[in-house]
Amino acid sequence: MKIAVFSDVHDNLERWREAAEIIKREKIKIGICCGDTGDLETLGEIARTFDKVYLVIGNLDYNIKNKTSLFPENVEWFMDFGEFKIDGKNIALVHNQHTAKKLAESCEYDVVFYGHTHTPWEEKIGNTVLLNPGEISGQFGRASFAIYDLQKQKAELKILR
Q1: For position 140, which CATH number holds?
Q2: Number of domains in the chain
């Protein structure tokens, strides 16, 4: 199963829509957001792209963190840290890279997703994949996200225009 992993949208709907076109073309139904989404309008657009979204609240999500009761029904959200299973894989989700590395080092997860640094990164720690999909917003570098194959434990980085 393939999932879309993205972070640091920062309300850049133009870039999000570009990513969403790729995601729809690939027929991906599950999204993992590693934080810093923006406002409720942006979250709504993200939610409409998927059947299910897992979202961790990022350090700049002050526009939405007190409005969780207004989140779309298909969004499962976590304040600082989330853990869940998809397709039999143990997954952890955080925004901060330092916490992500500690989680990966625990060897309790198949994959740990994180954001915050705006820089794509993938590394294997023991049997755990540690993955940052970069940034949708394109603030500090090229806008990007990842399509992650859970069975192959392999990421494909997608660079946006």
Answers
A1: 3.60.21.10
A2: 1
Single-letter code of the amino acid located at 45: E
State which amino acid sits at residue 52.
Answer: K
149-152 long-range contacts, Cβ below 8 Å, gap at least 24? 149/1, 149/2, 150/1, 150/2, 150/3, 150/86, 150/87, 150/89, 150/110, 150/111, 151/1, 151/87
Confidence band, pLDDT 50/70/90 cuts, at residue 140: very high
Helix axes 40-49, 13-25, angle to 10 degrees: 10
Between β-strands 144-149 and 154-159, what pairing exists: parallel, antiparallel or unpaired? antiparallel
Q: What angle do CA 139, 24, 20 make, to 5 degrees?
A: 20
For the segment 36-74, what is each residue's pLDDT rounded down to a tens digit? 999 999 999 999 999 999 999 999 998 899 999 999 999
Residue 84 CB contacts under 8 Å (≥ 6 apart), including other chains = 54, 76, 91, 93
In this prediction the pTM is 0.97
Range of the domain at 34: 2-159
Say how many residues make up the chain.
Answer: 161
